[in-house]
Amino acid sequence: MTTLLVSLTLALTLLATPALATGVPQPEGYRLSDYRSPTPDGVTGATTVDTPAVQALVSRGRIIPIFVQRLERSTLPGGPWLQSKPYRQIPGSVWLPNVGVGAPDAATLGWFESNLERLTGGDRARDLLFYCLSDCWLSWNAAKRAVLLGYARVHWYPTGIDGWMEAGLPTEEAHPLPPPAAAAP
């Protein structure tokens, strides 16, 4: 019986212990490739949040969840996003594709900045939540970019929609905002 109690105590302790740090260093700049790979434990200047924290932030209704999954774009002038499959997002999210790529073009950067300005009403202290999929540098890059733009309450959700869905939380179909205007030749 004592062995069973010790085993149960050990098992409960292991379940309650937070995940070990990844040991992945934060790059000085942005991640430029291999976006689906282990990420650092945080983003300098941002708050790293887990699923219960995101749930609490969303339930308060003050945070703006921003989904940053990448999408290809038509090569036609002013072409639309090419969405090959449906995506799910945290309810109430805004999908800004490609704002987390390491070196976005000037039109995408301007589009990101103007959408953050519009979504926050110019309030740089407004809570922003950046997420993508688990092990995805796109959300890390986007959160870092928002911090460097002067947003003071940036939250990064590293397990993203995968962690949200694994917890059995509600989702909605994701629809990307219209793409930025094509850069002038």
UniProtKB/TrEMBL annotation:
Top-rank taxon: Bacteria
Protein name: PQQ-dependent catabolism-associated CXXCW motif protein
Keywords (A to Z) from UniProt: Plasmid, Signal
Residues making up the signal peptide according to the UniProt record: 1-21
Residue span(s) of domain Rhodanese: 90-173
Lineage, broadest ranks: Bacteria, Pseudomonadati, Pseudomonadota, Alphaproteobacteria, Rhodospirillales
CDD domains hit by this protein: RHOD
UniProt-listed Pfam families: Rhodanese (PF00581)
InterPro entries per UniProt: PQQ_CXXCW (IPR022376), Rhodanese-like_dom (IPR001763), Rhodanese-like_dom_sf (IPR036873)
Matches recorded under PROSITE patterns: RHODANESE_3
